[in-house]
Specification:
The chain contains 3 helices and 6 strands, in the order E-H-E-E-E-E-E-H-H. With 202 residues, it is α+β, with helices and mostly antiparallel strands. The protein is globular and about 40 Å long.
Amino acid sequence: MTVQNLATEPGAARGMRAGPASAVPPSASQAQHSEPTVTLYGRIAADLPGYISWPDPPSLHFSIVIDDAYSSIIVLDGQPTGMEAGIRNMALIKTNRYDNALPGGAVVKIALQPPQGMSRQEFAHRLVINSQKFVSYVAPYALPQNIRGSRMRAGEYNSGSYVAGLLQSVMGHVPTISAPGFQAPGWESPMPGHFFKGEAIR
């Protein structure tokens, strides 16, 4: 996998890039019939709170960016819920998607390739579909072990676990990543596949 560390590059903390004003939000069918690229964007988790791991390396929050031949962009990641589903459903993991913009402040970019025998179109399509099938508002959003740690406790998940689990649900494995100077808690603890099939039990 190609890793591009952007921490020292000029303009690394640029804001989101808006798409054309007339662009129509891409659908799963568009992703299926284009020639998309899939890239893992890593930025400091929750901005300043991501540095709570000091003096250990800062923690990363990952987003999957699908950029297709129609010049449209789909961004997928996992986020903790706020008050949008009521106070009883706060701090649960949900699918987060936005279109025609890039995550700001990326310090790491990792190009992802589909597994053997799968086209780039199918890879992008399955990522979109499985993210739509994810059962949000079920699993608690947890902090890493000892808060500053680089790993999650057994059976606990965060946004890194969501992205790792989504990729595993499509690829059959969690891709190995390398991001020198950063840590990625949750990557070692992917969310189980049943969450991406609508089979999680409340």
